[in-house]
TrEMBL record:
It comes from Sphingobium nicotianae. Keywords: DNA-binding. This is SpoVT-AbrB domain-containing protein. InterPro entries: MraZ_C, MraZ_dom, MraZ_sf, SpoVT-AbrB_dom, SpoVT-AbrB_sf. Residues 72-115 form the SpoVT-AbrB domain. It comes from the Bacteria. The keyword DNA-binding applies. It holds the Pfam family MraZ. SUPFAM superfamilies: AbrB/MazE/MraZ-like.
C-alpha cells in the first residue's frame, strides 16, 4: 500500500497492524478501512433504521447489516504496508497482478487499473495517475519477460 494511503488508514485503526477489507458484489472495487470505521458504519445502520421507523417504513436492520458486514475480512498489515488479499476476494473484484489505490475520505478503494478507467469516476487527474501507473506496471512486466 502506498505510504500516503497507509498513514491516513492507520489513523482509523485501533490496532495499526489490522485493517478491514470489504468486498461488495455491487461495486467494482475492494474497500479498505480501519476498524474504528466499523463503529461508524454500525451507527449509520442504526440511524437508517431509526429514520425508517420515524417515516413508518419497514426496515430490516438485520438483513441490511448482514448484506453490509458479511463482505468484511480483517487482514494483517505489515510495517511496509503489505497485506494479503484472499484469492477469491481478488478474483471477485476483478483484480489480477496490479492494484490501483484511490481514496475517498475515510475509505480506500482498490481497483484493477483497467477496470478503474472503464468504470471508475471520471476525473482527468486521477485517470492520469492511473494511466501512469499502468505504464509503470507494463514496463515491469516487459522487463520480467
Amino acid at each position: 500500500m502506498p505510504a500516503n494511503f497507509r498513514g491516513e488508514l492507520r489513523k482509523s485503526c485501533t490496532v495499526e497492524t489490522r485493517i478491514q477489507l470489504r468486498l461488495d458484489e455491487n461495486r467494482p472495487y475492494l474497500t479498505v478501512f480501519g476498524d474504528s470505521e466499523l463503529l461508524a458504519f454500525q451507527a449509520e445502520s442504526e440511524a437508517k433504521a431509526q429514520a425508517a421507523r420515524a417515516r413508518g417504513e419497514d426496515f430490516d436492520q438485520d438483513m441490511h447489516d448482514m448484506a453490509f458486514f458479511v463482505g468484511i475480512d480483517e487482514v494483517n498489515l505489515d510495517g511496509a504496508g503489505r497485506f494479503a488479499i484472499p484469492r477469491e476476494v481478488r478474483e471477485s473484484a476483478g483484480i489480477s497482478d496490479a492494484i490501483f489505490f484511490t481514496g475517498a475520505n475515510r475509505v480506500i478503494q482498490l481497483w484493477d487499473p483497467q477496470r478503474f478507467l472503464d468504470l471508475g469516476p471520471k476525473n482527468s487527474v486521477i485517470d492520469g495517475f492511473c494511466r501512469k501507473f499502468m505504464a509503470e506496471v507494463e514496463a515491469k512486466r516487459r522487463a520480467k519477460a
